[in-house]
Amino acid sequence: MASVPMPTLDSVIGWIESRNDDCALRFEPRIFATQRYSDAETLGKIMRANHCSINTAKMLAACSFGRFQVMGFNLYSDPINYPGEIGNYFHNDELQRKNFYSFCQYKMIDFPVSDLLRTVKRNHFAQVYNGSLEYADAIVASLKHFGVSIQ
């Protein structure tokens, strides 16, 4: 029986988050309501980059963007520090992948996909990347989508 090639980490997560749609956009009302993004420096960066009001910056901070659904407050702060208008982020596959890997490296979850076959690593990745252990189930579903079996 031929073995299935291991997908890349960006392929696994991109499939979960957006089915690999570079233009995916999702407003996260819970993030907006709790003002988890309320760092004044980050909001200032969003306002300057997008030439917008504080209220629009708060809304952008509470949205997730692109193939990997990176939260706006993460996109405009360390380690990504995206300097541009949000509209230019879409359709830029190379930039989105670079930012995804920078974020994973910064959060120390830039694991090889083979590590995600192990429950402990998969749960850790899920908790750090998404904040929820249920995300580990989505990782399993994505791996199965790519033909990778989990023992």
Structure description:
The chain has helices at residues 9-18, 29-34, 40-50, 54-61, 72-75, 93-106, 119-130, 135-145, and strands spanning 25-27, 63-65, 70-71. It has 151 residues and is mostly helical. The chain has one domain (9-145). A 3-stranded antiparallel beta sheet has the order 1-2-3. Strand 2 (63-65) and strand 3 (70-71) form a beta hairpin. Helix 1 (9-18) crosses helix 8 (135-145). It starts with 8 loop residues before the first helix and ends in a 6-residue tail after the last helix.
Helix content: 40-55%
Task: Give me the number of helical elements.
Answer: 8
Secondary-structure element string: HEHHHEEHHHH
Radius of gyration, in Å, reads 16 Å
SSE class: mainly alpha
What sort of overall outline do the alpha carbons produce when their principal axes are compared? elongated
Instruction: Report the sheet with the most strands, covering strand number, pairing sense and barrel closure.
Output: 3 strands, antiparallel
- Tell me the distance between the termini: 17 Å
Structurally, how many domains make up the residues? 1
Mean pLDDT: 94
Into which percentage range does the β-strand content fall? Answer: 5-15%
Number of extended strands: 3
